[in-house]
Amino acid sequence: MKKNHSNHGAHSVSRRNVLKFGVASGAMASVGSLGLGSIFCPAAQAAPALPHEDFLTSVCANNCGSTCILRPVVQEGRVMRVDTDNSVEDNWQEGIFQVRACPRGRSMRRHMYAPNRLQYPLKRTGERGSGKFERISWEEALGTIAGKLVECKTKYGNESICSLYASGVQVGALMRRESFYRLMNLMGGFALGTSDYSSAQNQYGMKYLYGQSGYSGNPTSDIAHTKLAVFFGLNITETRMSGGGLQYEVLEAKRKGNTRVIVIDPRYTDTCITIADEWIPIRPGTDAALASALAYVLITENMVDNDFVRTHVQGFDASSMPEGFAPNLSYKDYILGTGEDATPKTPQWAAALTGIPATRIIQLAREIGGAKPCYITQGWGLQRQAAGEMNTMAVAALAALTGNVGLRGGNNGDLDGYSPGVSPRLPAGTNPVKARFPTFLWLRAVERGTEMTALRDGIQGADRFPANIKFIWNYAGNCLVNQHSDINETRRVLSDTSKCEMIVVMDTHMTASAQWADIVLPSASYLEQPDIVGPSYAMNTDWLAFTTPVKPFFESRPVYDVCVDLAKRLGIEKEFTEGRSREDWLEYLYETNCRKNMPTLPETLAEARKVGLFMRAKNRDALPVRFADFRNDPVANPLKTPSGKIELFSPALHTIGKTWELEPVLGNRIPPSPQYVATWEGFEDKEGKAKFPLQMITSHYKGRTHSHYASVDWLLEVMPQVLWMNPLDAQKRGIEHNEIVRVFNGRGEVRIAVKVTPRIMPGVVTMPQGAWYKPDANGVDHGGCANTLTLYRPSPLAKGNPQHTNLVEVSKL
Amino acid sequence: MMHYEFALVLFTVLIQFCAGLALLVWLAGVHNYPALEKRLWRVILACGVVALGGSTMHLANIMHAPFTLTQVGTAWLSREIASVSFFGLLVLLRVLNVGGNKLNPVIALVGLGTVYVVSQVYRVPAVPFWNTIGTELGFFGTALALGGAGLAVFLHDSKEAEDAPRALSLAAGVCVAGIMLSLVQPLLALQGGAAALPEGSLVQTLNIAHGLGLPRLLAAVLGGFILCYGLVRGCKCNAMVLIGFALIAVGEVAGRMLFYAANIRIGI
Amino acid sequence: MKKSYAFYMDASRCMGCKACVIACKDGHDLPLGLNWRRVPECTGGAWAEHADGTYTQNVFSYYLSVACNHCESPVCVKACPTGAMHKTEDGIVQVDATRCVGCNNCAWNCPYSAPQLDKSKKHMTKCNFCRERLEVGQKPLCVAACPARALDFGPREELIAKYGRANIAPLPPASMTEPNLAVVAHKDAQPANTRKPFLANKEELS
Description:
The complex is a heterotrimer of chains A (813), B (268) and C (206). Chain A has four domains: 1-113 and 530-554 and 581-617, no CATH class; 122-192 and 435-523 and 558-577, Rossmann fold, CATH 3.40.50.740; 201-420 and 628-659, Dimethylsulfoxide Reductase, domain 2, CATH 3.40.228.10; 686-812, Beta Barrel (Barwin-like endoglucanases), CATH 2.40.40. Chain A contains 27 helices and 25 strands. In chain A, 64% of the residues are buried. Chain C has six helices and eleven strands. In chain C, the strands form five sheets. In chain C, strands 10-1-11 form a three-stranded mixed β-sheet. A two-stranded antiparallel sheet of chain C has the order 2-5. Chain C has a two-stranded antiparallel ribbon with strand order 3-4. The longest helix of chain C is centred in the N-terminal third of the chain and has 10 residues, at 19-28. The termini of chain C are far apart. Classes of the chains: A alpha/beta (813), B mainly alpha (268), C alpha+beta (206). Chains in contact: A-C, B-C. At the A-C interface, strand 4, helix 8, helix 9, helix 13 and helix 26 of A face helix 1, strand 4, strand 5, helix 4 and helix 5 of C.
């Protein structure tokens, strides 16, 4: 094992200055010595270890959007504790700052050595889902898996083998999901869903509006360059909690710009606490109604940026409607009530839906219209709804209307934007299987894959999906059970072993999904495999970490090694490895990727490992302004939409709306422009609310990343799973703070402690997603798993997961 | 849920019983009945030993107990332990018949002092329910109630003191006064809590306490009544006096449990 | 006289993530039930429902991150019968495990719940300002951990002169113990002497 103790001593004297009070001044003083702006600085461990300690460089690579540096203190191959990154002095403006882990990463030792950590390969012995297993050898496990892969390929075709969406390892050259992708691509291909569980509705909505799906906005640090930022449902402080990530960026940017931030959210989130100047509570699923009413005020009070709209937007009004469509299908006609629904989207109209007083809506519109630039952005929650595509588009439309697209300090209204540095990945190759189903519909593909069509189920690359899923590989993910909507439905389908014939779960812990596996493989954790890791997607920094592992837990193994062994059994080892060992691959990627991107890295990987972390300056004022070219010359630099413009009326959506076959339920329609759509189990679902009157959202929770870290007792102790409920709703039900209550609807029941707090709006409860499912014999969940209550019904366009659209009732036990 | 440490309930109530009884041994002139006096000192010593022994259950590391006497200059808890020990030592002398009954007033006064010192341990500014004069009054009340009732039981049971109406009525009177003092404590405590704790804490506390509050009140009042009735009737009905004593004791123990359960601190 | 320190926390930056709590727990190997650093949530405000189905409210919330404040008037030290709880020359209040009898009296007296009994170790434990790290020129674990850069520490006199002593709900009034905790107040900070029940996460403070 490599230890880098020797590096600490040299800098120890200068680190004494940490004792001087004032981080900021210390940071400024150190800029010169780092020589920022021109060179790469080796972010060596400058702080001395305590006399008896050796640090390794490692990471937390989970799917919160950040990667954090962990510095485990190791004795005899075992992590004794984890220290923070302290390799540089913070200098946010230069994009150099410590990548400080949040409590999840800091709990790594407890997580790694937990009693529920998997130690050996297991084979199911009871009914599927019974949680009964016996220990088997790696030999037997891999033999069984390889045999079944060949059998499924032969009997049902490659499309029957599915790698389930999973994000437990989000960064890393070799520890991510690419190993299995590569293996399966070499074997003839495999079934893979399109999009994901995170932002499907947004990706599709933005594709039709801006011709580009996902993360298309300016980095959030850009709020430093505006006087007003409006966060529609963006809870960056909790969802991007790491100290190397966006929470810190936004905190600094707001201070630098003295920016007024308005947060619109059903919850008074932690973002409201540190970032917001004002909180506007809103009912879930009504963001498009608010956006429409804001547009109404902007239009009627002449605050639309007409110059921008005229040249950059299609379908704003009759004059910019494409040929062949009724002029009153325009966005403006919809807003003013001269369109098909003949309803003006007045502030009064929106007030009754959103719960926001009309006067506040008018005032907000005037604030947005009066600020230029104005940074309009949105979180991921408002799109994870039954008509999430519409919410996401309606909010983003405001940025177009006000001409804030392509401006420094402006934005296009999309999700929090980023600009992370590049990190290498194992080349996965090309998947010969072209037919793909929407990720969220994998369970449908298990039961009736061959009935799934393009028009009904959003199948891409084919008119019809060619197979039913017979084999599931689930590496580092919990969407098999815990994170997928309607667990009772999932249980029903998975219980039948004639449908999906084999489920393999490779993970670090005995998750709810692992409980439903036929074969369980113990995975080495982030800290137990050497790798090359860079910033995850939701970061604006540029660095690379070369990690040094500790001893793997019992018989746990890295996924790459496991895939090599499978390749051997499948007769494709040579193709898989290209003759490279694991270390050869890392060196290859170091040379071809890392050194190419960061030419000043040391010559060898071994030398880079001795240092551990390398960070490159990236001035915050030089972060990209997205769509600037388009703004400057929309003809020369058109968008990827059919018209090349921002499409507030989309002919493509118009066609889809007329041709796709949608289940006839409230809200299942696809309008051609951003509109408010009342949906099933939304605020306007009167029938549903008669029985289950509360809207339930499933917000992210700081005690875990999705379901990752959810079983760590250190975290549960200070961040227990609770249902948030407003005092007005609690009083009506005679419910007291901290009492265990029943939360239920037609699909299931959860027993959970309640946090009675004014921090959530009346009529709304939140059961934070990701807590581990713990059913009793009657199927009542005691783990607080929100998916016991969610509905397995895809959104109309993206076929995405609408896990914030739920109606429930809460009662005393 | 009520939270209290029974070791501490036992310790404080027993020590106060001992102090009260010692006081009455002196006030009632029990030295006139040597056999009874001897018996009483033994009872006091036994109770003191049980109290001290029980109190160690509250300590996480009894091996370090000797250090507890080192901070008499600053810590009321040190003073408590020193005071209880000194009181115990004096009682031991009486049991061993060293010093004679001229020690009785000294022991009585040391006992009273001890009760005061014990009460000061609970004058914690961070705990408003405790930090009132009610704590001193309550602790003295317990001492008098149990001391008085205890003496009554023993007097009533003693052949030697068969005809000691003055002592009996003194015991009964002190006992009743003690019960009244003891019942003043929760009123003052609630007042103190209400003045300093966040709104709602009082209601929460009462919610927690109400299950035990009424029985505690009933036990004290009923116990006092039965005890006095037993004495006044002059009947030879030991059982009645004993029941009275037992009820009073139960009331005091319950009251002390409530007292500890009201350990709600200001701050976090 | 050795240099002595105070903690500093900027409540306008603190997002309540509790990285400080876990960093402390990991670094000091604290068992379940013990957290030397804790993060109280202070929440208040009310809702009004209107006839048109809309709401208005004046909700506010903020966090504090609090460990031992190594107070000028350490009531824990005064309450300790053994002398185990003591304030060292450099101002750090710490427990001498070789003397502590584990009577909990310090815990009763401290309005910050700083002293905590470790039943398996049979003595009180508490924040020692990461003395071992200070001695080698490092920051306390919690300070170094803070992802929001809300926590810091520095020379006691300088910090207290500049920011005063923490006197913000749900903490007790500073006059009780004179804590060496300098707080930059959140915009919605409430005074320490409020009697409103603002402490919103008692369950999480163990």
